[in-house]
Amino acid sequence: MSALSKSATVAILPHDRENLDTGETILSIGIFVFCSISMMVTNKLAITAFPYESTLTALQMAFAVLLLLCFAFRSIHIGSLKDVLRWSMVAPFFAGMLLTNMLALKHCTLTLVIVCKTMSPIFTLMAESFYANVQVNLQMVASLLIMLLGAVLYTRELKVEHLVGVRWLTVNVSFSVLTRLLQRRLLADNRIDISKSGCSLISNALGILPLILTAYLTGELEADAAPQKLTSLSNLEMCFIIVSCVVGLGINYTTIWCQSLISATSMLVLINANRFVVILIEAFFLHRQTSDHRPSATQLAGAMVTVLGGIALAAPQRDVKHGTRPRHDERKEYQPAAPEEQSSQEILSV
């Protein structure tokens, strides 16, 4: 009887394990898609309801610090004060990246933000080519041309008032590139002894300080500015802000969760599929809530072409870095690239 039970257990366990893996993968993908789309939409709604970008970004980062200390304290490891001082160089760039992202959302449509951020790898590729010996092939050049064509189609009908947002998007791309390059440099060859949750904690905690200074210098902290607006928000508007904080933290976990269960190529497809969905949501629903104009058919086509070009650009880079491997090998070797993917608001930069 004992041998029979043991035999039955051995026969059942592999099937059960496969079902559990499939269920977990489907669950992680579903939650990631929801958080990713909600992140972009709620951030836009939050900055529309509470148009004080420095204060709003500081509130979101403070919320991230609080949740990290409460629920991820055991995973936080900081080797020494010297390591903290090294990583603290990231904080002002990280804060600048999040602040300029919020400013871009304030002055731009979500579709314009997606178009510009899809094109940001162009600048990263140029920067990495100086020190990482990245080879540019014909497929990359063709992808860049497709992205530029889509961007031209979208921006040709762009309203003048959105040009302010384009300037902030340009600054945001610069901050994003500098932040990523600095993080990669510090993380290379284990130069610092800090866990990823520890890096996220330091980036958010120290990043609050320049944001508070910016809020003070721009008059956001005056009694008739952000404090008064915060107390006069409706329940729905307050909900937008709270949900943007919660979803920001949710995207941290689900990004890493998905990356551990599916291939990097599948992850790229998910991220870009989410962008398509956000473009359609803004085109048919969100523009009424944010007072943005509804994009024309030409602009929609241009945005879609830009995202497709971004997908095509990423493919040859993966071939150079990882080679062509089966899906199960990709899953074993792919790891979260850097702590920025665990930071509360940077999914828009992915």
From TrEMBL:
- Principal subcellular localisation of the protein: membrane
Tell me if Transmembrane helix is a UniProt keyword of this record: yes
Q: Basic and acidic residues bias located where? A: 318-334
Compositional bias per record (Polar residues), positions renumbered to this chain: 341-350
Region annotated Disordered sits at: 318-350
Task: Please indicate which superkingdom the organism of origin belongs to.
Answer: Eukaryota
- Gene Ontology annotations for the cellular component aspect, listed alphabetically: membrane
**Keywords of this entry:** Membrane, Transmembrane, Transmembrane helix
Q: Where in the cell is it found?
A: Membrane
Under SUPFAM superfamilies, the record lists:
Multidrug resistance efflux transporter EmrE (SSF103481)
Q: How does it sit in the membrane?
A: Multi-pass membrane protein
Tell me where the transmembrane regions lie.
26-46, 58-77, 89-115, 136-154, 166-182, 194-213, 233-254, 261-285, 297-315
Q: What is this protein called?
A: GDP-mannose transporter GONST4
Cited InterPro entries = EmrE-like, TPT_transporter
